[in-house]
Amino acid sequence: MQTLFLILQIAFIAVLLGAGFYFANKRLGSYFASRPHLKFRYQLIQIGGILLAVLLIILFMPIGDTLRGQLLGLYGLIISATIALSSTTLVGNIMAGLMLKAIASCRPGDYITVGDYFGRISEMDLLHTEIQTEERDLTTLPNLYLVTHPVRVMRQSGTLLSVDVS
To answer: Rounded to the nearest 5 degrees, what angle is found at the Cα of 91, between the Cα atoms of 124 and 61?
Structure first.
C-alpha cells in the first residue's frame, strides 16, 4: 500500500511539473513567434527549462535523502560529462553557437567568407548559421565550422559589388 502511494506521489509530481513546463513553453512559443530574431534566446530558455525540470523532479520526489543525494550526484555527473565531451558534434555546435553569440563578431545581415563559402548571414541559430550565397542559394554551416576556420566579416553597411566584364 505504501509503495502504491509513493508511486502515485511521484506520478502526481511529474504530471504537475510537466503541465507547468508545457504551458510555460506554449506561452514562450507564442511570445517568440513574432520575434524570429530572438530564436536563439528561445532555444536557450528551452534547454534551461528541461534541465530545471529534471532537477525539480529529483528534488521533489518523495524519496530518502541518501537516494536523492545519489540522484543529484548522478545528474551533476551527467551534466559535467556532457560539457567535458563537448568535442562531439551536437554539444560542440551548441558551445560554438554560444561562443559566436558571446563574441558577436558577426550577425545576421553581415557578409562573411569562411573557407570556400561566401555569402550574407540570413540566420544564426544555436546549432548552425545559414548564409545566402551569390547565387541566392541558402547554405547551412555548422557553428563548429565557423569557430574552427578563419572568418572574414564585412558589415552589412559596407558596399559589395560583383561585376562580370567582357
So the answer is: 115
pLDDT tens-digit series, residues 101-142: 888 888 888 899 998 999 999 988 888 899 999 888 999 999
Q: What is the pLDDT of residue 39?
A: 79
Q: Could you tell me if 62 and 9 are in contact, meaning their C-beta atoms sit under 8 angstroms apart?
A: yes
Q: Between the CA of residue 5 and those of 16, 60, 63, 69, 148, what are the distances in Å?
A: 16, 15, 12, 22, 54
Tell me which of 91 and 119 has the higher pLDDT.
Answer: 119
Q: In 48-58, which positions are buried (b, 16+ CB within 10 angstroms) versus exposed (e)?
A: eeeeebeebbb
Q: Is 1 helix (H, G, I), strand (E, B) or coil?
A: coil
The side-by-side arrangement of strands in the sheet containing 138-142 is 138-142, 128-132, 117-124, 111-114, 151-154
